[in-house]
Amino acid sequence: MMSDQDFPASIATPAQSIDEVINQLTAIVVWSGQNNSRTGYFAALYRKVTIQVKKGIEAGFFDDGQRMGRFDVIFANRYIHACYQYHTGQAPTQSWVRAFDATERWWPIVLQHLLMGMNAHINLDLGIAATETVPPEELQSLRGDFDKINQVLAGLVGSVRKELAEIWPVFGIMNRFLGNVETGIINFSMEKARDAAWSFAEQLSPQSSVQRQAMIQEKDAIFAAFSDVIMHPGFTLSTALRIIRLGEQGTIRERIEILE
Q1: Domain containing residue 201
Q2: CA distance 121 to 98
Q3: 193-206 pLDDT tens trace
Q4: 5 φ, ψ to 5°?
Q5: Is residue 197 part of a domain?
Protein backbone atom coordinates (compact mmCIF):
# COMPACT_ATOMS: atom_id res chain seq x y z
CA MET A 1 0.00 0.00 0.00
CA MET A 2 1.17 3.47 -0.84
CA SER A 3 0.83 6.63 1.18
CA ASP A 4 0.36 9.75 -0.92
CA GLN A 5 0.16 12.88 1.20
CA ASP A 6 -1.55 14.88 -1.55
CA PHE A 7 -4.21 12.30 -2.38
CA PRO A 8 -7.56 14.14 -2.36
CA ALA A 9 -9.10 14.06 1.11
CA SER A 10 -12.46 14.88 -0.44
CA ILE A 11 -13.01 11.21 -1.27
CA ALA A 12 -12.48 10.02 2.31
CA THR A 13 -16.21 10.46 3.01
CA PRO A 14 -18.52 8.05 1.13
CA ALA A 15 -20.53 9.62 -1.68
CA GLN A 16 -24.26 10.03 -1.01
CA SER A 17 -25.43 10.58 -4.59
CA ILE A 18 -24.38 9.81 -8.16
CA ASP A 19 -23.32 13.44 -8.58
CA GLU A 20 -21.00 13.05 -5.58
CA VAL A 21 -19.67 9.80 -7.09
CA ILE A 22 -18.87 11.62 -10.32
CA ASN A 23 -17.17 14.44 -8.38
CA GLN A 24 -15.05 11.97 -6.41
CA LEU A 25 -14.10 10.03 -9.54
CA THR A 26 -13.16 13.35 -11.13
CA ALA A 27 -10.89 14.10 -8.15
CA ILE A 28 -9.13 10.74 -8.66
CA VAL A 29 -8.75 11.38 -12.39
CA VAL A 30 -7.35 14.87 -11.83
CA TRP A 31 -4.95 13.65 -9.14
CA SER A 32 -3.82 10.79 -11.40
CA GLY A 33 -3.08 13.17 -14.25
CA GLN A 34 -1.14 15.52 -12.00
CA ASN A 35 0.88 12.65 -10.50
CA ASN A 36 1.33 10.50 -13.62
CA SER A 37 -0.52 7.67 -11.93
CA ARG A 38 -2.00 4.81 -13.94
CA THR A 39 -4.75 4.71 -11.32
CA GLY A 40 -6.44 7.21 -13.62
CA TYR A 41 -6.98 4.67 -16.42
CA PHE A 42 -9.76 2.77 -14.65
CA ALA A 43 -11.07 5.88 -12.86
CA ALA A 44 -11.49 7.77 -16.14
CA LEU A 45 -13.37 4.94 -17.80
CA TYR A 46 -15.48 4.32 -14.70
CA ARG A 47 -16.50 7.98 -14.51
CA LYS A 48 -17.69 7.80 -18.11
CA VAL A 49 -19.77 4.71 -17.34
CA THR A 50 -21.20 6.33 -14.18
CA ILE A 51 -22.35 9.31 -16.23
CA GLN A 52 -24.12 6.88 -18.56
CA VAL A 53 -25.84 5.21 -15.59
CA LYS A 54 -27.02 8.63 -14.40
CA LYS A 55 -28.42 9.37 -17.85
CA GLY A 56 -30.17 5.99 -17.84
CA ILE A 57 -31.82 6.75 -14.50
CA GLU A 58 -32.95 10.17 -15.69
CA ALA A 59 -34.34 8.63 -18.90
CA GLY A 60 -36.33 5.97 -17.03
CA PHE A 61 -34.21 3.10 -18.36
CA PHE A 62 -34.34 1.23 -15.05
CA ASP A 63 -37.41 -0.27 -13.37
CA ASP A 64 -36.72 1.62 -10.14
CA GLY A 65 -34.56 4.68 -10.70
CA GLN A 66 -34.27 5.62 -7.05
CA ARG A 67 -33.16 2.13 -6.07
CA MET A 68 -30.71 2.02 -8.97
CA GLY A 69 -29.24 5.32 -7.84
CA ARG A 70 -28.68 3.81 -4.39
CA PHE A 71 -27.18 0.67 -5.93
CA ASP A 72 -24.83 2.69 -8.13
CA VAL A 73 -23.60 4.80 -5.20
CA ILE A 74 -22.99 1.74 -2.98
CA PHE A 75 -21.17 0.01 -5.83
CA ALA A 76 -19.01 3.01 -6.72
CA ASN A 77 -18.14 3.71 -3.09
CA ARG A 78 -16.44 0.33 -2.87
CA TYR A 79 -14.00 1.36 -5.60
CA ILE A 80 -13.54 4.92 -4.36
CA HIS A 81 -12.93 3.78 -0.78
CA ALA A 82 -10.48 1.10 -1.91
CA CYS A 83 -8.62 3.72 -3.93
CA TYR A 84 -8.48 6.08 -0.94
CA GLN A 85 -7.34 3.29 1.38
CA TYR A 86 -4.56 2.19 -0.94
CA HIS A 87 -3.18 5.66 -1.56
CA THR A 88 -3.24 6.59 2.11
CA GLY A 89 -1.38 3.51 3.33
CA GLN A 90 -4.41 1.48 4.41
CA ALA A 91 -5.46 -2.00 3.29
CA PRO A 92 -8.37 -2.47 0.86
CA THR A 93 -9.42 -5.92 -0.36
CA GLN A 94 -6.60 -8.00 -1.82
CA SER A 95 -8.18 -7.87 -5.28
CA TRP A 96 -7.87 -4.09 -5.22
CA VAL A 97 -4.36 -4.23 -3.75
CA ARG A 98 -3.29 -6.30 -6.74
CA ALA A 99 -4.97 -3.88 -9.18
CA PHE A 100 -3.41 -0.81 -7.59
CA ASP A 101 -0.01 -2.48 -7.24
CA ALA A 102 -0.10 -3.06 -11.00
CA THR A 103 -0.43 0.69 -11.59
CA GLU A 104 3.09 1.11 -10.21
CA ARG A 105 4.58 -1.13 -12.90
CA TRP A 106 5.70 -0.11 -16.37
CA TRP A 107 5.02 -3.29 -18.34
CA PRO A 108 1.24 -3.90 -18.07
CA ILE A 109 -0.62 -2.46 -21.05
CA VAL A 110 -3.59 -0.13 -20.56
CA LEU A 111 -6.07 -2.94 -21.21
CA GLN A 112 -4.52 -5.05 -18.46
CA HIS A 113 -4.97 -2.19 -15.99
CA LEU A 114 -8.64 -1.95 -16.99
CA LEU A 115 -9.12 -5.70 -16.62
CA MET A 116 -7.47 -5.66 -13.20
CA GLY A 117 -9.95 -3.01 -12.12
CA MET A 118 -12.87 -4.98 -13.53
CA ASN A 119 -11.70 -8.14 -11.81
CA ALA A 120 -11.90 -6.47 -8.41
CA HIS A 121 -14.94 -4.32 -9.05
CA ILE A 122 -17.23 -6.63 -11.00
CA ASN A 123 -16.13 -10.07 -9.85
CA LEU A 124 -16.03 -9.07 -6.17
CA ASP A 125 -17.70 -5.71 -5.50
CA LEU A 126 -20.81 -6.04 -7.68
CA GLY A 127 -22.39 -8.91 -5.77
CA ILE A 128 -21.59 -7.25 -2.45
CA ALA A 129 -23.20 -4.00 -3.59
CA ALA A 130 -26.38 -5.83 -4.60
CA THR A 131 -26.75 -7.38 -1.14
CA GLU A 132 -26.21 -4.01 0.53
CA THR A 133 -28.80 -2.27 -1.66
CA VAL A 134 -31.87 -4.28 -0.66
CA PRO A 135 -32.84 -6.65 2.19
CA PRO A 136 -32.76 -10.40 1.42
CA GLU A 137 -36.49 -10.64 0.77
CA GLU A 138 -36.24 -7.97 -1.96
CA LEU A 139 -33.13 -9.26 -3.72
CA GLN A 140 -34.95 -11.08 -6.52
CA SER A 141 -36.85 -7.90 -7.40
CA LEU A 142 -33.47 -6.28 -8.12
CA ARG A 143 -32.51 -8.81 -10.80
CA GLY A 144 -34.01 -6.93 -13.74
CA ASP A 145 -32.19 -3.69 -12.98
CA PHE A 146 -29.07 -5.66 -12.04
CA ASP A 147 -29.02 -7.06 -15.56
CA LYS A 148 -29.72 -3.62 -17.03
CA ILE A 149 -26.83 -1.97 -15.21
CA ASN A 150 -24.62 -4.68 -16.58
CA GLN A 151 -25.59 -3.64 -20.08
CA VAL A 152 -24.01 -0.32 -19.18
CA LEU A 153 -21.04 -1.95 -17.43
CA ALA A 154 -20.41 -3.98 -20.58
CA GLY A 155 -19.22 -0.69 -22.00
CA LEU A 156 -16.14 -1.05 -19.81
CA VAL A 157 -15.02 -3.68 -22.32
CA GLY A 158 -16.88 -2.72 -25.45
CA SER A 159 -16.06 0.98 -25.53
CA VAL A 160 -12.31 0.67 -25.05
CA ARG A 161 -11.52 -0.38 -28.63
CA LYS A 162 -11.53 3.15 -30.06
CA GLU A 163 -9.57 4.55 -27.11
CA LEU A 164 -7.01 1.74 -27.21
CA ALA A 165 -6.53 2.28 -30.94
CA GLU A 166 -5.58 5.89 -30.17
CA ILE A 167 -3.07 4.74 -27.56
CA TRP A 168 -1.73 1.88 -29.68
CA PRO A 169 -2.46 2.51 -33.42
CA VAL A 170 -1.66 -1.06 -34.45
CA PHE A 171 -4.53 -2.26 -32.24
CA GLY A 172 -7.07 -2.31 -35.10
CA ILE A 173 -4.77 -4.33 -37.34
CA MET A 174 -3.95 -6.80 -34.56
CA ASN A 175 -7.65 -7.33 -33.89
CA ARG A 176 -8.13 -8.57 -37.46
CA PHE A 177 -5.55 -11.30 -36.93
CA LEU A 178 -5.99 -12.14 -33.25
CA GLY A 179 -9.69 -11.47 -32.82
CA ASN A 180 -10.68 -9.15 -30.00
CA VAL A 181 -7.66 -8.43 -27.86
CA GLU A 182 -10.02 -8.32 -24.89
CA THR A 183 -10.75 -12.03 -25.25
CA GLY A 184 -7.27 -12.84 -26.49
CA ILE A 185 -5.68 -11.68 -23.25
CA ILE A 186 -8.15 -13.44 -21.00
CA ASN A 187 -11.49 -15.15 -21.33
CA PHE A 188 -13.20 -12.32 -19.51
CA SER A 189 -16.87 -12.70 -20.32
CA MET A 190 -18.98 -9.87 -19.02
CA GLU A 191 -22.04 -12.09 -19.11
CA LYS A 192 -20.33 -14.80 -17.07
CA ALA A 193 -18.97 -12.20 -14.65
CA ARG A 194 -22.45 -10.72 -14.25
CA ASP A 195 -24.05 -14.11 -13.61
CA ALA A 196 -21.31 -15.04 -11.14
CA ALA A 197 -21.76 -11.72 -9.32
CA TRP A 198 -25.50 -12.33 -9.04
CA SER A 199 -24.92 -15.85 -7.76
CA PHE A 200 -22.54 -14.41 -5.17
CA ALA A 201 -25.20 -11.89 -4.14
CA GLU A 202 -27.72 -14.69 -3.67
CA GLN A 203 -25.24 -16.56 -1.47
CA LEU A 204 -24.35 -13.48 0.58
CA SER A 205 -27.79 -11.95 1.06
CA PRO A 206 -29.29 -14.31 3.68
CA GLN A 207 -26.09 -14.55 5.73
CA SER A 208 -25.25 -12.81 8.97
CA SER A 209 -22.73 -9.96 8.95
CA VAL A 210 -19.99 -12.26 10.26
CA GLN A 211 -20.75 -14.94 7.68
CA ARG A 212 -20.80 -12.36 4.91
CA GLN A 213 -17.34 -11.11 5.84
CA ALA A 214 -15.95 -14.64 5.81
CA MET A 215 -17.45 -15.33 2.38
CA ILE A 216 -16.17 -12.01 1.03
CA GLN A 217 -12.65 -12.77 2.25
CA GLU A 218 -12.79 -16.17 0.57
CA LYS A 219 -13.95 -14.70 -2.75
CA ASP A 220 -11.41 -11.90 -2.47
CA ALA A 221 -8.58 -14.42 -2.17
CA ILE A 222 -9.82 -16.24 -5.28
CA PHE A 223 -9.97 -13.09 -7.42
CA ALA A 224 -6.68 -11.77 -6.06
CA ALA A 225 -5.12 -15.02 -7.31
CA PHE A 226 -7.00 -14.61 -10.61
CA SER A 227 -5.09 -11.35 -11.08
CA ASP A 228 -2.04 -13.45 -11.96
CA VAL A 229 -3.85 -14.74 -15.05
CA ILE A 230 -4.52 -11.18 -16.21
CA MET A 231 -0.95 -10.06 -15.58
CA HIS A 232 0.79 -13.23 -16.82
CA PRO A 233 -1.43 -14.95 -19.43
CA GLY A 234 1.16 -17.43 -20.68
CA PHE A 235 4.36 -17.04 -22.68
CA THR A 236 2.89 -16.33 -26.12
CA LEU A 237 0.37 -13.72 -25.01
CA SER A 238 2.81 -12.18 -22.55
CA THR A 239 5.27 -11.72 -25.41
CA ALA A 240 2.56 -10.10 -27.53
CA LEU A 241 1.67 -7.81 -24.63
CA ARG A 242 5.26 -6.64 -24.36
CA ILE A 243 5.23 -5.76 -28.05
CA ILE A 244 1.98 -3.85 -27.54
CA ARG A 245 3.43 -2.06 -24.52
CA LEU A 246 6.45 -0.88 -26.48
CA GLY A 247 4.08 0.53 -29.10
CA GLU A 248 1.72 2.36 -26.74
CA GLN A 249 1.85 6.07 -27.38
CA GLY A 250 1.47 9.15 -25.20
CA THR A 251 2.17 9.98 -21.59
CA ILE A 252 0.11 8.57 -18.72
CA ARG A 253 -1.81 11.85 -18.56
CA GLU A 254 -2.52 11.76 -22.30
CA ARG A 255 -3.80 8.19 -22.07
CA ILE A 256 -6.09 9.14 -19.19
CA GLU A 257 -7.49 11.96 -21.31
CA ILE A 258 -8.15 9.52 -24.17
CA LEU A 259 -10.01 7.14 -21.85
CA GLU A 260 -12.16 9.98 -20.57
Answers
A1: 9-259
A2: 12
A3: 788 899 999 999 99
A4: -60, -30
A5: yes
